[in-house]
């Protein structure tokens, strides 16, 4: 495992797609960015065209879209560490399994947030909180795939090696239906999901774009922060048990 030393003498993992950011500066920045997104969503950004009267209903996008994107990104991060665990130079390293599991847990969290915010948007935009639109159906099944992964791990608690092997294999096998549900189903079936509305730059103001792009950064930093906290907790638990 590639590591380097911080000023405090703590080894920091340099491997993998999650940046090993250290110090408090970026966490403070992440908090300030999130505050800006929350404030900007309601008091700075103007509405977007194609989202009902005055476009105010598009404000849910600031929270829904980053959550939905991270729900998919987390799966790929989990897959990355699952592959490292199975086929890496140090295959069988349980910390790689822990990193994969952490990514999947956070993926479940962001997928749940995307489902809830999407349902709220549907209730405001279409007058019904759930109508089994292809996008809604896809994200629910994706949520179930994540939940099944977590249930599998819970069922094998106390058997770390077996749990790690089966979890990694499950993550790899479930990748195909997960990506098919996210990318293919909504494109081969009619959907009310307003994806094309935001793709037209003229539909949103500069204020809206600033808040939206900031939300992508804020949510990404939130993911990195949560990942590092969970990994630190795992390492402390491992140290105490060892």
Q: Tell me how many strands there are.
A: 2
Q: Helix count, per DSSP? A: 7
Summing up helix and strand content along with how strands pair, one would put the structural category as mainly alpha
The largest pleated sheet is described as: 2 strands, antiparallel
Give the termini distance in whole angstroms. Answer: 19 Å
The overall average pLDDT, rounded, is 86
Stretches where pLDDT is under 50 for at least 5 consecutive residues are 1-12
Description:
The chain is an all-alpha fold and 242 residues long. The chain has one domain (59-241). It is 71% helix and 2% strand. It contains 7 helices and 2 strands. The protein has helices spanning 25-43, 61-87, 94-126, 134-155, 160-188, 195-199, 206-241, and strands spanning 3-5, 11-13. It has a two-stranded antiparallel ribbon with strand order 1-2.
Short descriptors:
242 residues; mainly alpha; two-stranded antiparallel sheet; 7 helices
């Amino acid at each position: 495992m590639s590591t380097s030393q911080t000023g405090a003498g703590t080894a920091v993992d340099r491997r993998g797609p999650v940046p090993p950011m250290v110090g408090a500066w970026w966490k403070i920045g992440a908090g300030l960015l999130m505050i800006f997104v929350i404030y900007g969503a309601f008091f700075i950004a103007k509405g977007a065209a194609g989202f009902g009267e005055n476009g105010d209903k598009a404000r849910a996008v600031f929270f829904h879209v980053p959550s939905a994107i991270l729900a998919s990104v987390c799966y790929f991060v989990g897959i990355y560490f699952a592959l490292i665990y199975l086929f890496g130079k140090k295959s069988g390293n349980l910390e790689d399994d822990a990193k994969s599991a952490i990514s999947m847990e956070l993926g479940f969290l962001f997928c749940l947030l995307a489902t809830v915010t999407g349902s709220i948007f549907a209730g405001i935009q279409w007058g019904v909180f759930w109508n089994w639109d292809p996008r809604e159906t896809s994200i629910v099944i994706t949520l179930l795939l994540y939940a099944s992964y977590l249930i599998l791990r819970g069922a094998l608690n106390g058997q770390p090696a077996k749990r790690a092997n089966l979890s990694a294999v499950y993550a790899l096998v479930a990748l195909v239906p997960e990506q098919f549900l996210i990318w293919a189903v909504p494109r081969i079936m009619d959907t009310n999901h307003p994806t094309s509305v935001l793709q037209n730059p003229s539909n949103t103001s500069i204020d809206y774009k600033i808040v939206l792009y900031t939300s992508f950064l804020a949510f990404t930093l939130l993911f990195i922060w949560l990942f590092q906290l969970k990994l630190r907790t795992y390492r402390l638990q491992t140290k105490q048990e060892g």
